[in-house]
Amino acid sequence: MSTTLDETLVEAFAGQILIDVGATLGTALVTIGDRLGLYRAMADGQPVSAGELAARTSTHERYVREWLNAQAAGGYVRYDADGDTYLLPAEHAFVLADEHSPVALAGTIQAAAAAFQAREHAVERFRSGDGLGWHEHHHDLFDGTGRSFGAKYRAQLVSDWLPALDGVVERLEAGAHVADVGCGHGVATILLAEAFPASTFVGYDYHPESIAAARTAAREAGVEERVRFEIATADGYPGEQAYDLIAFFDSLHDLGDPVSAAARARAALRSDGTCLVVEPFAGDTVEENLTPVGRVYYGFSTLVCTPGSLSQEGRAGLGTQAGEARIAAVLRDGGFTRVRRAAETPFNLILEAKP
What's the rounded Cα separation, in Å, for the pair 335 and 178? Predict the structure, then answer.
């Protein structure tokens, strides 16, 4: 049986593949520019030659010129043939060169490049069904994820998400005891500590390297007297009815046994406490998530989040696009009686769970 191909569709799909190849290579080039400070050296919005940029960043001109040409071809910078100069538009600098921008994405690209390095492991795991633990990834995944989440949390956690919760801001202002489960580098924990000086905080994570980084960050932020970070699993940290607020920041879907983690949080919360669950934005059906954002999240899910869950006891494998209904069911199975969507962004769902 022969198949007649639509040549127009073939050409269009081949073109899409070429775009994806360019984007894949571009991810590596962005991480190079980020690490060497090339974007930051262009953030003044003025035209610069390859030689001038190399001098500013103590790099080799020939490499810098090739990098700039790739950046110009990808639309990241603008090239002026008359002056043989390159310019990073202010809007692009806001995304790539400003770490405190609410849309800073250099960390996301760093994390994506690190996730790409897991592909050989992923091939093996696809065949065996075994998991791939967070600790098995390149260290850029840990740093890039912290930077990526930090941009979102700085922009919205204190100003938008917490006020959407019932009575939580008032309790934090008066003095609350807070646990951050799966805290990673402690970005959210430290932001909370800076915003609410009357409260105390503890972050838990099973990954020693992340806990060490979180402790260093707390010292640098000057909040180490009210913040501590400890190595513990999501269902094994201490305390019974000890916390006013327990938070899972982009971590519940990564767990092997999220129901046990929810049950542990329920037991560790005070009777009038709150559980805050921040998850990647997702609809409850596959077709709702076939979007550019969904593509990114499914990619991270395939290489990082689902393998991470499958490496743990329970092997729930919720995935990055679990959706509100599945996450709410996990929380209810863990003993919470009231679960509601408190807020949302194009990138996150913010759920409130009550005992």
Answer: 19
Report whether 142 contacts 107 (CB < 8 A).
no
Query: Cα separation of 123 and 303, whole Å?
Result: 10
Q: Round to whole Å and give the CA distance between 264 and 353.
A: 13
| 278-323 confidence digits (pLDDT tens) | 999 999 999 999 999 999 999 999 999 999 999 999 999 999 999 9
Domains of the chain, by residue range, sit at 7-98, 111-354
Residue 277 has pLDDT above 90, yes or no: yes
Query: Among candidates 287, 236, 230, which has minimal Cα distance to 260?
Result: 236
Instruction: Please check whether residue 268 is in contact with residue 295, taking contact to mean a CB–CB distance below 8 angstroms.
Output: no
Architecture of domain 111-354: 3-Layer(aba) Sandwich (3.40)
Which tokens hold the place of 239? 């305390």
For the stretch 84-130, pLDDT in tens is: 999 999 999 999 999 999 999 999 999 999 999 999 999 999 999 99
For the domain covering 7-98, report its CATH number.
1.10.10.10
